[in-house]
Specification:
alpha+beta, Alpha-Beta Plaits, 2 domains, four-stranded antiparallel beta sheet, 3 helices, rod-shaped
């Protein structure tokens, strides 16, 4: 008993009949199973994400008012902090205030030299080299007054050197060399008045 018929026309007909069956069989076992497994994996992942989203929604609903209140508190604090940061047009007034504090503290302001402004992501940093001469306690009073100005301005890198001579009150003068740093709100970029017409 032969599997294939001896007639060539019947052989072609049998092969043409078997080819679609073999193609369907190959598709089912080779491609469909991998797609079915991928579909099952994606369905499981989707269910997991939906559960996590639902959990996050429930947590947000429970903590929503508290988070909103904390966010408002942070906004108020940021507004207060930005009120302490000078704008670039306020810097000359700050320098004038430092000069007045030097006179009030009975020290001589001998150097006030700006360095290059350092741009930052939110604020620009401005540094000044400063030198004052006076009695030790007067220099301390001046540094305290500078640190207490209504805008954020910080003395750093302090070096004190004795002058080797007494002042008119009989106390030895010292020279304080330091830097003051302040952060400046940058100017918003100028809008171009490009008239196109």
């Amino acid at each position: 008993m032969a599997i294939l018929p001896s007639d060539p026309g019947k052989q072609k007909l049998l092969i043409l009949t078997l080819l679609p069956v073999l193609a369907a069989f190959a598709y089912w076992y080779l491609l469909h199973d991998s797609y079915a497994q991928e579909n099952l994996d994606l369905t499981a992942r989707l269910e997991n994400l939906e559960i996590r989203n639902q959990t996050a929604r429930l947590q947000a609903m429970r903590a929503g008012p508290e988070l909103e209140q904390r966010l408002n508190q942070y906004r108020v604090q940021m507004e207060r902090l930005e009120q302490l940061i000078p704008r670039s047009e306020e810097v000359p007034q700050l320098l004038n205030d430092m000069t007045l504090r030097a006179r009030e503290s009975a020290v001589d302001l001998v150097l006030l030299q700006p360095e290059a402004e350092i741009p930052g992501a939110f604020y620009n940093r401005q540094v000044y080299e400063v030198a004052v001469i006076g009695a030790y306690h007067d220099v301390g009073r001046f540094l305290t007054a500078v640190g207490s100005l209504p805008r954020i301005i910080t003395p750093t890198d302090l070096r004190i050197v004795t002058r080797g001579r007494n002042n008119r009150t009989g106390n030895m003068d010292v020279e304080a060399l330091f830097r003051v740093e302040t952060y400046i709100l940058p100017q918003p970029p100028a809008r171009s008045t490009d008239a196109r017409g």
